[in-house]
């Protein structure tokens, strides 16, 4: 039993010695670690360590020192790691504080159609840092963007998703599209939206880029058209043609660009326009200058109106029509810019520019065809103006030189109407010929304006006047010059009421004062006018001697009347006068037919002496037969001439001036009507003329 007690005593002593050693080692480790981190424990530790180490052999001390050194080193390393992490967190917290507020961003992680999304609160990063971090993700990182951001030192908390559907009430900072890998800084995007609404600069180049996810219209502010073509070449070499890569390519090419229109996004409802278009899917490039003038003009208008609507519909149509008709895009651009800036300033210059541009269009010979159409057809000589078939016929009938234009650039002068009607191509007239024709027409218009003023003085002047009207010198009217009312009736040109004798077929050739010519009756006044304009022409009178088919208008005591110079005397023309004065059709019925007939009879029955008209255009076969002044000889000659239809008609024409001819059983009855042979120097002339059978519906 004594041995057992002895053994237990030694065992307890060993445990106590072991515990003392462990305590010594722990104290020494603590001292060492604290000393490393600057914590002074010497007052406590040194006494304890010294007390334990006394009496210990070197082997035991060395073993404990190894333990102390190894354990202290492990602790120091571990503590330093923790301290470093704490230090980093402390620094991060300091960085997170900007003006007393913690860095925080709202990130929307979404697919394209928003069927899946996650709204995440990101603490520790502002929007720019968040965009930078997300843009640096690789394919593995994209599997969980929130977890990736945690590894970058951010704290993330999901606020909403497609199930909660609450993200709309939050102000987003960053969007990340998981389908396209596009990262959008919302604030920067808003700034871009404002810039994208600015007017397009004159030197900006507009590039439309179409790719598999949509399209963008880029406004490039620092590149020439040639530089943009180099950018398009670089874009075609991209392997992955997504939005981000396209924008990265633009940046790498040094382009200062603004996406002014983004399909389904920014300004997507605005009208599109561009200088260049590249389709990265089809690998096609289109330049605006290769489009039709109408398309180019629309692009110019849309470009100018991108920031502000200015043009009216009429102005837009004019600009497009101007481009199509004149085929000059530089002038079209200048016109559009002029009108736009005048409208923007609210000045009257826009209206003047429109008038001038319309005048240029109207100066072309044919409003139905333009220079671009002729160029597309294949004819490009700059001194030729295009015509449609209808216009070519019209100008050819007016004796103008008109050409058939051919697709090989050649032309053929037209010799006959059948060439025009049988040709299916484009026609033309030389600029010089058309300019001459315009000058002639301008002169005619000037004369017409002078006539209008003269006519107003005649019809509405304060003094009594007379006016001489003569048939227009055009082919359609020549066969009716010097024809009386009876002849016109027989040929079916006019009816008994004479309403087919129209002012539109006459020119006012002279207006004079009635003082000195007025007689006691209207008939006497007309006789005086007739005599003056056959015997004593005024010096400034340019018409022919007053003859059958002319009209005399009298303005007496504020009233107007028209009188047809007939084969015998004058015939009143109340309808002619009403139309000349512009009286409405409904007012014509106010004068009874009987009254008009009486008016005509009163004047036409008066015997007015006349001399022969001056026929200047006699054909070679025309024959002047001098029969003297014997009535019997005249009648004999008239009877001999009635051998055929043409001769009969010729006889009627002559007889309208000198002979009354009536058809009776078995032939014709003739009688001489008021001819004063002395007025024609003792000679009576029968004029044989060729007669056209071409009918005229309105005389």
TrEMBL record:
Residues 645-684 form the Large polyvalent protein-associated domain. Residues 466-575 form the YodL-like domain. Residues 583-610 have a biased composition (Basic and acidic residues). InterPro entries: LPD16, YodL-like_dom. Pfam families: LPD16, YodL. Residues 583-616 are annotated as: Disordered. It comes from the Bacteria. This is DUF4316 domain-containing protein.
């Amino acid at each position: 039993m004594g041995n057992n007690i002895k053994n237990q005593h030694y065992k307890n002593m060993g445990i106590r010695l072991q515990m003392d050693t462990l305590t010594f080692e722990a104290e020494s480790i603590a001292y060492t670690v604290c000393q490393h981190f600057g914590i002074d424990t010497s007052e406590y530790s040194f006494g304890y360590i010294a007390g334990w180490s006394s009496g210990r052999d070197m082997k035991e001390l060395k073993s404990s020192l190894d333990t102390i050194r190894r354990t202290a080193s492990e602790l120091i390393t571990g503590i330093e790691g923790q301290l470093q992490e704490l230090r980093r967190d402390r620094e991060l917290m300091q960085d997170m504080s900007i003006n007393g507020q913690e860095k925080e961003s709202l990130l929307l992680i979404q697919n394209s159609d928003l069927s899946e999304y996650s709204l995440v609160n990101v603490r520790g990063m502002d929007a720019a840092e968040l965009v930078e971090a997300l843009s640096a993700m690789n394919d593995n990182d994209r599997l969980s963007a929130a977890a990736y951001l945690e590894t970058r030192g951010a704290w993330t908390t999901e606020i909403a998703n497609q199930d909660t559907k609450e993200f709309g009430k939050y102000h987003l900072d960053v969007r990340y599209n998981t389908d396209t890998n596009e990262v959008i800084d919302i604030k920067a995007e808003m700034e871009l939206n404002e810039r994208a609404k600015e007017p397009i600069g004159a030197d900006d180049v507009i590039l439309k880029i179409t790719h598999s996810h949509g399209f963008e219209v880029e406004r490039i502010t620092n590149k020439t058209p040639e530089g943009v073509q180099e950018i398009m070449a670089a874009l075609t070499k991209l392997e992955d043609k997504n939005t981000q890569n396209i924008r990265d390519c633009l940046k790498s090419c040094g382009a200062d660009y603004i996406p002014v229109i983004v399909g389904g996004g920014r300004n997507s409802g605005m009208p599109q326009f561009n200088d260049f278009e590249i389709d990265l899917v089809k690998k096609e490039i289109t330049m605006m200058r290769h489009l039709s003038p109408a398309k180019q003009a629309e692009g110019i208008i849309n470009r100018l109106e991108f920031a502000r609507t200015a043009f009216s519909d009429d102005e837009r149509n004019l600009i497009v029509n101007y481009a199509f008709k004149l085929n000059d895009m530089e002038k079209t651009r200048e016109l559009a810019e002029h009108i736009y800036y005048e409208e923007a300033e609210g000045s009257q210059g826009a209206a003047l520019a429109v008038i001038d541009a319309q005048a240029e269009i109207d100066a072309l010979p044919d409003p139905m065809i333009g220079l671009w159409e002729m160029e597309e057809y294949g004819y490009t000589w700059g001194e030729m103006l295009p015509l449609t078939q209808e216009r070519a016929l019209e100008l050819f009938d007016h004796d103008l030189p008109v050409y058939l234009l051919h697709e090989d650039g050649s032309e053929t002068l037209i010799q006959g109407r059948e060439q025009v009607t049988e040709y299916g191509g484009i026609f033309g007239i030389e600029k010089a010929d058309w300019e001459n024709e315009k000058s002639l027409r301008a002169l005619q218009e000037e004369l017409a304006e002078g006539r209008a003023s003269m006519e107003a003085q005649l019809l509405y002047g304060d003094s009594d006047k007379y006016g001489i009207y003569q048939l227009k010198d055009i082919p359609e009217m020549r066969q009716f010059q010097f024809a009386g009312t009876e002849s016109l009736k027989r040929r079916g040109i006019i009816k008994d009421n004479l309403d087919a004798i129209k002012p539109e077929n006459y020119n006012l050739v002279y207006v004079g004062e009635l003082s000195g010519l007025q007689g006691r009756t209207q008939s006497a006044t007309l006789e005086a006018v007739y005599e003056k304009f056959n015997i004593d022409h005024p010096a400034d009178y340019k018409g022919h001697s007053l003859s059958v088919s002319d009209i005399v208008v009298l303005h007496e005591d504020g009233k107007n009347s028209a009188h047809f110079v007939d084969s015998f005397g004058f015939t009143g023309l109340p309808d002619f006068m009403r139309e000349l004065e512009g009286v409405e059709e409904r007012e014509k019925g106010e004068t009874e037919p009987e009254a008009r007939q009486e008016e005509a009879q009163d004047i036409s029955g008066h015997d007015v002496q006349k001399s022969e008209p001056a026929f200047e255009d006699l054909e070679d076969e025309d024959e002047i037969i001098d029969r003297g002044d014997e009535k019997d000889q005249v009648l004999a000659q008239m009877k001999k001439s009635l051998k055929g239809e043409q001769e009969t008609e010729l006889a009627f024409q002559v007889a309208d001036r000198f002979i009354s001819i009536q058809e009776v059983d078995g032939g014709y009855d003739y009688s001489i009507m008021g001819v004063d042979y002395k007025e024609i120097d003792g000679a009576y002339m029968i004029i044989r003329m060729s007669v056209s059978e071409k009918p005229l519906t309105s005389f």
